[in-house]
Design a protein that fits this description.
Mean pLDDT: 73
Number of strands: 2
GO molecular function, one term: transmembrane transporter activity
InterPro entries: MFS, MFS_trans_sf, Proton-linked_MCT
Order of helices and strands: EEHHHHHHHHHHHHHH
Distance between the termini: 57 Å
Number of helices: 14
Largest sheet: 2 strands, antiparallel
Main location: membrane
Subcellular location: Membrane
Strand order of the largest sheet: 1-2
Oligomer: single chain
Helix content: 55-70%
Structural class: mainly alpha
Strand content: under 5%
Keywords: Membrane, Transmembrane, Transmembrane helix
Radius of gyration: 26 Å
Low-confidence stretches: 17-36, 104-124, 183-198
Shape: globular
Length: 320
């Protein structure tokens, strides 16, 4: 709707009958103007958001990446009478609850469907539904409370079942709530690389594997520390190369090399030096893969479907 003053219509035949401004509707044949962005993309405020996401996931998702430390401790202390594969179910349940419940919500509002609707399970889990219905602030607050409660309850757990419920179920829910409340920007490859982490099986078992190969327990933890350190490098460095070479171009070799290092290095490693070499290589390439996978999905998806597609991916990942 546009408004033209009377002075601009003096040459019209019926000008005498016009005594006020006339609203005129104009139909534009060109493309509609771009929608105003509803998120910060660049500048101090946007990068402070990224830093806040890093802090949230450092305390939550990072703890899940360090489960190998818990695995080694439990098998020699509180749960020493149980087989290591049984103890590993604590971390497995934690990861399953996290992946199956979370859906990284998109930046566009969705219809508020019931938690019991058929689309609910297919679109990533109830945490994503809660995000769409109540927004990020409420979910972040609840997630922080749940996660802190899980740590407190884990510290006083005295049986295997209590560890499963506290560190497995409750912690997975808390991390899922913190992880779901995020946006996708034009610089998603950078922000995602700074707030995500690597893949999980070696993170859970590399310490136990080292001690089983006669590596001193006080030294075996350095293998996991190196794995996490190189994973940080892998999450940050390839993101910059993605600008020049493309995200899919980097994703494929990183996934291949992460798997190859596990097949060739971990399966044949029996000394501390060999395990450290494997940890460095796997951490680098697995970190790069996990940092690039979400931006790759965002690249080929409509912004209204990003959340659903990532939810489907994580739901599939949650099953072994």
């Amino acid at each position: 709707m546009a408004t033209f003053p009377v002075s601009s219509l003096r040459n019209l035949p019926n000008y005498g009958s016009i005594s006020h401004e006339v609203p005129i509707c104009l139909a534009e044949d060109g493309p509609a103007k771009d929608e105003v962005q509803d998120f910060l993309d660049g500048g101090l405020a946007a990068w402070l958001t990224v830093f806040g996401a890093f802090l949230a996931l450092f305390c939550s998702f990072g703890q899940m990446n360090a489960f190998g430390t818990y695995q080694s401790w439990y098998t020699t202390h509180q749960l020493q009478d149980m087989h290591p594969s049984t103890v590993a179910w604590i971390g497995s349940v934690q990861l399953w609850v996290f992946f199956f419940s979370v859906r990284a919500a998109s930046d566009r509002p969705r219809a508020r469907r019931s938690f019991f609707s058929p689309a609910f399970a297919l679109q990533g889990g109830f945490i994503g539904r809660m995000f769409d219905m109540y927004g990020p602030r409420a979910i972040m607050t609840l997630g922080t409370t749940v996660y802190v409660a899980s740590i407190l309850l884990t510290s006083v757990a005295g049986s295997y079942t209590q560890y499963i419920l506290a560190q497995g179920v409750l912690s997975g829910l808390g991390v899922g709530m913190l992880y779901a409340t995020r946006s996708y920007h034009n610089r998603a490859r950078h922000s995602s690389s700074m707030t995500t982490t690597g893949l999980f099986t070696p993170f859970c078992f590399v310490v136990s594997y080292a001690t089983d190969n006669n590596v001193d327990p006080t030294t075996a933890f350095y293998v996991l520390a190196l794995l996490n350190l190189t994973s940080v490098i892998g999450r940050i460095a390839p993101a910059h190369f993605a600008d020049a070479f493309g995200r899919f171009t980097l994703l494929v070799p990183c996934a291949f090399l992460a798997g190859l290092s596990t097949l060739l290095l971990w399966s044949t490693a029996h000394t501390l030096a060999q395990l450290l070499a494997y940890a460095a290589m796997y951490g680098l390439f697995s970190g790069a893969f996990n940092a690039l996978i979400v931006p790759c999905i965002a690249q080929i998806s409509d912004i209204r479907e990003i959340g659903m597609r990532i939810g489907l991916l994580y739901s599939i990942i949650s099953f072994p």
